[in-house]
Amino acid sequence: MDKINFKKLECKDKEVFDEFYGARYCESAQYTFTNLFMWREMLNLHWATEDGVLYVIAHWQGKIAAWQPIGAQENLQDAITKMIRFFDEQKQEVFFVGLEKSFADELTRYPHAKFDITVDRNNFDYVYLSQDLINLSGRKFHGKKNHLNAFRKEYPDAVYLPITEEIIPKCRDELNLWYTTHKRDNPDDPFIGYEQAAIHEIFDHFDAFKLKGGAILIDDKVVAFTFGERLNSDTAVIHVEKADPDVRGIYVAINQSFVAHEWSEMTYINREEDMGIDGLRQAKESYRPVKLIEKFNATLA
Q1: pLDDT of the chain along its 301 residues, tens only?
Q2: Which of 184, 196, 225, 281 could pair with 179 in a Cys bridge, judged by C-beta atoms 3.0 to 4.6 Å apart?
Q3: Dist CA 298 CA 301 (whole Å)
């Protein structure tokens, strides 16, 4: 059996990942090249393709973790065998993270070893109906609609614009202000610095990543921006959303405007996970998700 030859993830690798991910119905936002690229430095991501299967691993705090192999169904059992051998060669415990339900089921069918599979609730993706986010209709969205109306009343001259090369510098200005505040409040959180650098990198390659983005400007200043991409045939995923918290209703406004202008033809909007952060979980639940995308971790029993 051939050895898997992993290499560092680079921007030029997008075409390969898009081919693998585009060949299947991925529901998890984790399985997009943009997501991997943004966190490749923090997680020290490496990847390889062998015999029609895509492999991704992370090196984190002295441990190795593997994403689920992506490829044709008939190749997955062999892929599991290869990954077990890889972990053994590295003298590491077998550890799969962020697994979709379908691959967790694949592990339960594996004949040569047993796996302990655990639910990873903190990384479930939240999925919404796009029309719910656009219309904010009914009693369950009454509070959101009030915030949106208050924003429009207080800032009647606010404008929504798609992100282009012309306004990216203004988005960068808002990004840096947002992180200055959050770094002051959370000086020991390494995630904040990695995320700031990652978003700047995405802006460096915005057209190459084929993303859609939107921004709200007040007095020619960006006060909120967001970007995302098509995840599968009926779902768009929102990767990033940043806004000035001092502008009342701005988060509802950028959310509603972005989906209305760029994703109204999609059935679903995936707004990624809450990472177990209470405030973020409350915010995501307040938009009334229609489903959660389950994720699982697995180790050898």
Answers
A1: 568 999 999 999 999 999 999 999 999 999 999 999 999 999 999 999 999 999 999 998 889 999 999 999 999 999 999 999 999 999 999 999 999 999 999 999 999 999 999 999 999 999 999 999 999 999 999 999 999 999 999 999 999 999 999 999 999 999 999 888 888 888 878 788 889 999 999 999 999 999 999 999 999 999 999 999 999 999 999 999 999 999 999 999 999 999 999 999 999 999 999 999 999 999 999 999 999 999 999 999 9
A2: 196
A3: 9
- Name the residue type at position 225: F
**CA distances, 181 to each of 173, 176, 178, 196, 286 (Å):** 13, 9, 5, 12, 25
Q: Is 194 exposed, middle or buried (0-12, 13-18, 19+ CB in 10 A)?
A: middle
Residue whose pair of structure tokens reads 């490749």 in the numeric block: 40
Helices (H) and strands (E) in the chain, counts: 11, 15
